[in-house]
Design goal:
heterodimer, A: alpha+beta, four-stranded antiparallel β-sheet, 7 helices, 27% helix, 27% strand, B: mainly alpha, 1 helix
């Protein structure tokens, strides 16, 4: 089975399926989604929405609608309306392009943002802007996986920077420290506050996971969260939410059909009481043959 | 077998028998000491529990960073995976 790797959305992607001629169009689809949903591309649908305050775009509307649902179900821990605040703090371009330290943040401004979705039209009112960074990658993974299956692939694996979902056969995915989940059954996503970090001119270290209550980088007891859920979009958003408000969100996971493995600041791994991970295949089962084994590097 | 060989054999057997008794006795003594220690520990735990609601004994080592979490399972052997979920 062939695979294809490339960079998009400021991270590494891997596509794999049993119909090799679908891989190039699938990559093109990822880039199309990025061109619609990235806040770093001035011509994207999202950027035009943030500028004009109303826009009609079916993909944008679908993702925004889902983001608002997840904001509600996480009690606000996941919040797609912090785009303006992220930009104020210095994360106003792709992470690779953050070269100059950001200006020291002023006292946190409250930038309220109302978001309304009516069919394919999204409208904003207020001062803030939308950012889909905590959900867009996961949505794209689901979208591309579905496209590949609809196009005739039977065995599919989509890995968007560590947000992973497959179909058609068992796909053993490494998580945490030596554990395995099957991405053929559920999706998995990992978030951390140690990868995307930068300093401002006052010397303070910032990261990209903001606490909606303060508008500042969340001060969490955890530094990494891996969430397993029914789809990659949900896993993506919940992984962010767990790091922002772990005490609240971890208790919500079972009702959302999700589970988590997390790492504390001291490096120890913990998990929700229930979860599909296992340290080895079940008795009597053989692990499926590896099609490709990679290191941890994105 | 000659008388001398028989006598030598009897001496060997008696040495073996005496050694076994000595070692076995030592084992019994050690086991007894261990049992006593365990009994003392059990009595201590029971005493601590009297009059209190049963609480898990948490130490700095075992306390999770967020209430409700449990230690993640430990890998017992390497498993081949096709990809790893990682932060990006």
């Amino acid at each position: 089975m062939t695979g294809r790797s490339f960079r998009a959305m400021d991270t590494s992607w891997w596509l794999q399926c049993d119909v090799p001629e679908l891989l190039a169009p699938a990559e093109a689809l990822v880039r199309q989604v990025e061109a619609r949903l990235s806040r770093f591309q001035p011509d994207s649908a999202l950027s035009r929405l943030n500028l004009r305050r109303t826009l009609e775009d079916p993909w944008l509307a679908e993702v925004v609608q889902a983001a608002l649902r997840l904001r509600e179900s996480t009690g606000g821990a996941f919040d797609p309306t912090l785009g303006a605040r992220l930009a104020e703090l210095g994360y106003d371009r792709t992470f690779a392009a953050i070269g100059q330290p950001a200006p020291a943040p002023a006292a946190c401004r409250h930038l309220p943002l109302g978001v309304h979705v009516d069919s394919d039209r999204v409208s904003l009112d207020g001062l803030g802007s939308l950012d889909l960074g905590g959900i867009g990658k996961g949505w794209t993974v689901d979208h591309v996986r579905q496209w590949l299956l609809a196009a005739g692939a039977r065995e599919v694996l989509v890995d968007g920077g560590g947000d992973i979902r497959g179909a058609g056969r068992p796909w053993p995915i490494g998580v945490a420290d030596g554990l395995v989940i099957d991405a053929g059954v559920q999706a998995v996503a990992t978030s951390s506050n140690y990868r995307r970090r930068w300093r401002n001119t006052a010397g303070a270290e910032l990261h990209h996971l903001l606490d909606p209550r303060t508008g500042l980088p969340a001060d969490s007891a955890l530094d990494t969260a891996t969430v397993v859920a029914a789809d990659a979009m949900t896993a993506d958003a919940l992984a962010t939410a767990v790091l922002v408000a772990p005490e609240r969100v971890l208790t919500l996971l079972p009702a959302l059909g999700a589970s988590a493995i997390v790492r504390g600041r001291d490096g120890r791994w913990w998990s929700t009481a229930a979860g599909p991970w296992q340290p080895q295949p079940a008795p009597g089962e053989r692990a499926p043959p590896p099609y490709h084994v990679r290191s941890d590097h994105g | 077998m000659t008388d001398q060989a028989t006598r030598r054999r009897l001496v060997d057997l008696s040495v073996i028998a005496m050694s076994s008794l000595a070692l076995g006795g030592a084992f019994v003594v050690v086991a007894g000491v261990d049992r006593d220690r365990q009994d003392q520990r059990a009595m201590t735990e029971v005493a601590a529990g009297v009059g209190q609601a049963a609480m898990p004994v948490l130490t700095a080592e075992t306390r999770p960073p967020v209430l409700g979490l449990v230690p993640a399972p430990r890998a017992v052997r390497r498993v081949v995976v096709v990809r790893r979920s990682r932060a990006s």
